[in-house]
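Hey,

Quick one before I head out. I ran the complex with 2-deoxy-2-amino glucitol-6-phosphate overnight. Inputs first:
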Amino acid sequence: MCGIVGYIGEKEAQPILLSGLRRLEYRGYDSSGICTVSSDKNAISLRKLPGKIKDLERLIHKNPLSGNVGLAHNRWATHGAPNQTNAHPHLDCKGEIAIVHNGIIENYAKLKQGLIKEGHRFSSQTDTEVIVHLIEKYYRNIPLEEAVRKALLKLEGSFAIGVISKREPDKLIGARLGSPLVAAVGNNENFLASDVPALLDFAKDVIFLNDKEMAVLTRDTIKLSELSGRAVKRSPTRITWSASEAQKQGWPHFMLKEINEQPKVLENILSQRIKKDKRRVFFEELKIKEKELCSVKNITIIACGTAYHAGLCGKYILERVCRIPVNVDLSSEFRYRDAILSKNTLVVAISQSGETADTLAAAKEARRKKASVLAICNVLGSTLVRESDGVIYTHAGPEIGVASTKAYTAQLAVLYLLAIYLVQLKGAQANPTISRLITALRLCPALMKKVLKAQGSIKSWARKHSNFGSFLFLGRNINYPSALEGALKLKEISYIPAEGYAAGEMKHGPIALIDEYRAVVCIATESVLYEKMISNIQEIHSRRGKLMIIASEGNKKIKDLSQEVIFIPKINELFSPLIAALPLQLLAYHVAVKRGCNVDQPRNLAKSVTVE
Ligand code: AGP
């Protein structure tokens, strides 16, 4: 969750480091810091404090830093309160080495004890500070990178680090295990960062470090090696996102921008994945052999949060289209439950960031059990992608808002395409047929646009209910996961207690909650179970529950039960989650804005949960 930026080149490092940090703000943080080393002054200058980057900028304005090698960091506290002492960067005893770190060092207490015994003086409560004192311990008559290597081999846990030293001001070291780190190639300058958006203003050619790898950057070289010392060759990946794509482009919040990008994202996914003849699906980057996919007898989906809700939809989609049994597991449960997988189980790991610790661990566990792992992921070259047997990218572009929106519908789109692809492979006539599915799917971007064109009415629908103290979201069948996702969206950005439930479960408890103080959002679009949903709505209506209904256009009767109805275009029920997601996202967004919440950076949350 912390953000790392490093620079080495011919320019002053300070402005570049601060610009990179600002682009990482979305990851959530509680303190920030920066340091540079200037060869003329032969000293490390450092500024750090709790609070936002604008506070750091005020501090630096009074007392700027010079030097063209530097590190910057924003911290999401795991060990030690968010205060100045615990903010990064951290220095060794003599102030000759500086480090920034993202991750958790699980054996730091024991290492710290030993180092204190050897006379090292600690100033913080962080696990990170152990690393810089370990480097100091080894940094005698060997190059900085070798001292770093020795130190890292003593660590247990996860790390992405940046290290500089005043003794070798022409070097910047990066290394990672379990937390993401990328290097980027500039012109007479090179960069290090925990995430691509930090670099997009300066470089497009990015090298993703793998676990247990180190990068030694000088102003004109980047040398990769394994922590064991073996040299590694890896060519850069060209990032097609522009710096502006990772900005708001005039929208009030990233989240609203990303909600409105969904039709375009879906169009791109379909155009890249459906052959010109519009009758066949293909995935160029899949890598898992067709023969292996044909032998798949069951699927287990692992994911967290919104990605998990996409996975629950995936169960309905894959079972309906492919007639393959699908099990969906929370990654944090799967990784510890010693799951039973058969040799024909395909494990599908869904993750927007590709860095979610629980999903990475669950994917590792699946591979330990010899299952093939297919990643559905939004970040090129992310850890999950590099640790899976195959990948289908969602190509949703950078998703900056902490609340996932376009990545969610992109994950759904990929699951529809995967279902069609698996049926295609088997050559069997699908039920329903492949071309009918593709035709329905290709209608969806236009239907999304239609919903977004009417978002003004969704905004007033939302704002009218923004004072309710709690919400219940109800859905059936393939829109049961939509109800779960609607509840998550609302709670995570407006902090209002919200629960998603299968509507059929109403009588098994939730009906006790119904009264005029509770808003009940019902997804009552066209469905084989529509009448069942109406009975639930009548039960709520008779108990004076405050109904908010999402229904299909042309439904003339629904307003007899509530005036608070949002109509969305009709679509084959199988695809309705793609459309129903939009009013649910906009409901959450507008309620949160009305309540003055920090929509893009909700409290306590981070965009990528890289620690468990
Ligand atoms: C979704 O709005 C949340 N921010 C969160 O639940 C997220 O979906 C979850 O942390 C999984 O993230 P991932 O898709 O990057 O793995």
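The first strand starts at residue 3 and ends at 9.

Talk tomorrow,
K.
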